[in-house]
Amino acid sequence: MNIFRFVGDLSHVFAIIILLLKIWKTRSCAGISGKSQILFAIVYLTRYLDLFTTYVSLYNSVMKVLFLAGSGATVYLMYVKFKATYDHNHDSFRIEFLLVPCALLSLLINHEFTVMEVLWTFSIYLESVAILPQLFLVSKTGEAESITSHYLFALGSYRALYLVNWVYRYMVESHYDLIAIFAGIVQTILYCDFFYLYITKVLKGKKLQLPA
């Protein structure tokens, strides 16, 4: 544990809270990609299967429960409670083009060929691209609400901070994980264009627009 990982985790939790509050207060999931939320739910389910078999710390267990509960609640709100407000037409990204390559890559490149390790690796690869349907949706609709932009910024900040965490751990502990680092770099690159637009547009009170 270090300050970069801790702040990254807080940013991640903050992103989930922003999203849930946005959906609940507006009674609508307009502008949110249900497909991205399904991918994130798959990420947490495959990564945290060890919740009841491996105890690391209270902090670790609480975070796992928060991410599982948060993603489950989001999927429920989008596909059950506020289903009528979900934009199926614009949320048209083919997620099988992300799931299949990530599954194959996790079978080929992993630390150990065991069920739990392959599933963990799959979750790392999938998380790096899970935001693509959301970015695709924003691109198709032409703009994003401010609250949605704040959610995306918090989510992107979490991953960027985790990259700093890996640099710190390498310098201080001589520890590194190439799979996590590679996936983190890919995920951060996907957010770069959004980060620029967020800083130059949203923070100045303008609507965020991604190029189509």
From TrEMBL:
Gene Ontology biological-process entries: protein retention in ER lumen; protein transport; vesicle-mediated transport
GO molecular function: ER retention sequence binding
Membrane-related topology note: Multi-pass membrane protein
Keywords: Endoplasmic reticulum, ER-Golgi transport, Membrane, Protein transport, Receptor, Transmembrane, Transmembrane helix, Transport
Localisation: Endoplasmic reticulum membrane
GO CC list: endoplasmic reticulum membrane
Tree of life domain: Eukaryota
PROSITE patterns membership: ER_LUMEN_RECEPTOR_1 (PS00951), ER_LUMEN_RECEPTOR_2 (PS00952)
Tagged with keyword Transmembrane helix: yes
One Pfam family cited in the UniProt record for this chain: ER_lumen_recept
Record has Ion transport as a keyword: no
Main subcellular location: endoplasmic reticulum
InterPro entries cross-referenced by the UniProt entry: ER_ret_rcpt
TM helices/strands, residue ranges: 62-80, 92-113, 119-139, 151-172, 178-199
PANTHER family in the record: ER LUMEN PROTEIN RETAINING RECEPTOR
Family to which this protein belongs: Belongs to the ERD2 family.
Protein's recorded name: ER lumen protein-retaining receptor
Native source species: Drosophila busckii (Fruit fly)
